[in-house]
């Protein structure tokens, strides 16, 4: 992956990412009839232009997904034919 977004060292020098490796594990499951959830564990290793340096990051994220469903408690009205 090539990125043109510069990052900064704590001392203010800029670095440019050349290559990055991203690995993640995403575990998903339904939590309720209209709600699903997933947890993602991730790792990133990226190369910098400055002195062949590498930096790594680890992360955990959680995502909740709501899917709107038709209300089954309200009966559907039958279609009416109009005869003239």
Quickly list its features.
84 residues; mainly beta; two-stranded antiparallel ribbon; 0% helix; 56% strand
Instruction: Sum up the overall morphology in one term.
Output: elongated
| Low-pLDDT residue intervals, each spanning 5 or more residues | 1-5
Broad structural category: mainly beta
| Spatial ordering of strands, largest sheet | 3-4-5
Helix and strand arrangement:
Layout lengths: L6 E2 L5 E2 L1 E16 L2 E14 L5 E13 L18
Antiparallel strand pairs: 1-2, 3-4, 4-5
Task: Explain what you see.
With 84 residues, the protein is an all-beta fold. It has one domain (7-66). Helices cover 0% and strands 56% of the residues. It has no helices and five strands. It has strands at 7-8, 14-15, 17-32, 35-48, 54-66. A hairpin with a 2-residue loop joins β3 and β4. It is elongated. The protein starts with 6 loop residues before the first strand and ends in an 18-residue tail after the last strand. Mean pLDDT is 76; it is low at 1-5.
Brief overview:
By secondary structure, the chain is mainly beta. The chain has strands at residues 7-8, 14-15, 17-32, 35-48, 54-66.
């Amino acid at each position: 992956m090539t990125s043109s977004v510069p990052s900064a060292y704590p001392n203010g020098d800029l670095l440019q990412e050349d290559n990055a490796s991203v690995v993640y594990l995403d575990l998903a499951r339904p939590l309720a009839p209209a709600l699903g959830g997933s947890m993602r564990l991730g790792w990133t290793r990226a190369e910098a232009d400055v002195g062949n340096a590498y930096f790594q990051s680890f992360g955990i994220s959680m995502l909740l997904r709501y899917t709107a469903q038709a209300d089954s408690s309200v009966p559907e009205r039958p279609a009416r034919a109009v005869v003239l």
